[in-house]
Structure prediction request, 638 residues.
Amino acid sequence: MFLETVKLALRAISRNLLRSFLTVLGVVIGVAAVIAMVTIGNGTTAQVTADISKLGTNMLFVRPGQFGPRRAATEPKRFTERDVDAIRSQINGLRAVSPVSQSTAVIIYGGQNHSSTVAGVTNDYLIAQNWELASGRSFLASEERGGQTACILGETVRQELFGAARPEGQLIRVGKLSCSVIGVLEKKGQSGMGNDQDDTVLVPLRVYQRRIGGTTDISTIMLSARDGISTAKVQSDVTALLRERRKIGLGREDDFNVNDMTQMAATLTGTTTLLTGLLGAVAAVSLLVGGIGIMNIMLVSVTERTREIGTRLAIGALEGQVLMQFLVEAVTLSIFGGVVGILLGLGLAYTVVSFLGVPFVTSPTIIAVAFFFSAAIGMIFGYFPARRAAQLNPIEALRHE
Amino acid sequence: MTTPPLIEFRKVSKLYGSGEATIRALDRIDLSIRPQEFVAIMGPSGSGKSTAMNIIGCLDVPTDGDYLFQGISTSGFDRTQLTLLRRHMLGFVFQGFNLLPRTSAIENVELPLVYRGIDTKERRSRAADALARVGLAGREHHTAQQLSGGQQQRVAIARAIVTDPAVLLADEPTGNLDTRTSIEIMELITGLNRDRDITVIMVTHENDIAAYARRVLRFVDGRLESDRMNSEVADVS
Prediction:
């Protein structure tokens, strides 16, 4: 009996294929949106996670202020050289301690100019980031002390300014500062957050502080723990040390944050969650409209087939059997929409994902949820028309033209 | 010595509308039909013949009075009970055939068996038997559109008898057919009544169709004006 009804419903759909498709377009769009969104989101998350594991899970970032939406009313105190020295001497198990200060500046060479990130760093920065030089050398001790102005270019900057020419030994201008190029970094590509990591110029921290930043403040301290040392341990040690140095009393909140890469990733995924929620709301509206579309076409179908319903009732169909027939038809219709939506969503996600260069990660859970959700829509919006069909008076239905 | 009535009306009335506009479609009708009878119901339009047919077919219920089927009162039956009575005891043939569109002949005939929950294999063979009985063997997979009017009505008759009903109810079965085809259909119905002991009740307004019946009920203004055996009405042969 049930199988018969499904077969009947499938036949009704294939008979009016175009009409059926237009009817379920709302469901198709809603489901496709959810599937595409989640699949793309999964891909980006996978990419971020991969980037982080490439960097190594032993990285920690120390920044002033609180990360995330809660911001202090006043600008939190920055770190100083002395904080860096204190971490270096008092925290065990660190491979590299790399203070970083950075801003944006225009880089000029010959007739070319290019706006890029200028970072004041020490050689520890390259160790912490696992970043090799493609050519040239790193800073000499004398350069680190601020004697001569030397700089190391990221691949993007080199490409922009020098093209095919050899950059080593050339003088470039970084903002108002002139410095000679001593090396070029290996290409790293885009980060999981979508920014170009190679669009950067490194100068010694001292030089940066005196000639570009104008203060001895440090905006970020990057730490790299030795292999086998837990980042959680380092995190709590550094927190305790900085609380003491910054004279934060018991019970008061930190005015800085120490995060490892997994926590950074969690924050990043947090923004994706917000976006997902927003698009989810759009999808919900689309599914609602789709449901109403199904209800509408089912009501039309009940009217069109009044005589058929009358015949069925006359020859012994119970109310429940007629109800079931139309309900199954509505559910089959909405599942058809759901399946088309799932395929469309996956196709869309595949296109976008290959364009972004992130992996294609499908989630069986969300596909199952989309499938059952579309079935539920057919059930909910098909019930009213089905009940109307079941409750038709057979005499009037048979007389219907 | 008479057989107990299959169908019995006891002062059955049917009223439509209310107040001033009340229409008395049936006015205290007493009627009884015995098994294996072949009855024609006649009368001008508005006479109440269709209403009577609907009540006999359990598609409608009397406003007043009692309708007994095989001696059992149906007053107080709910929609489900009426449907089950139709499903197990009655077969319907309509003027407009009412076959499901774009559905093959055999699937149309199977339909009442589907609702009875009979499995596919048995359904197929019983439907094929019924189609053979109405002379449509070999046309099982034609759809309604591929069959002539007469053939469509044969499919409808097969659908009505596939469940071996006690009563075949035919509402103007030849109304949409030409004379030659009408004769064929009437001969088929007469044969079913004679050979398979199916009680036939038929609504018609044509005398030559009513002539196939052995008993003719004539309704006028909601009353049973006459109830005669056919030998009294006209000479059939």
User: Anything to note?
Assistant: Chain B has one domain: 34-62+77-233. The first helix of chain B runs from residue 49 to 56. Helices of chain B lie at 49-56, 79-89, 105-116, 120-133, 149-161, 179-195, 207-210, 230-233. The first strand of chain B starts at residue 7 and ends at 16.
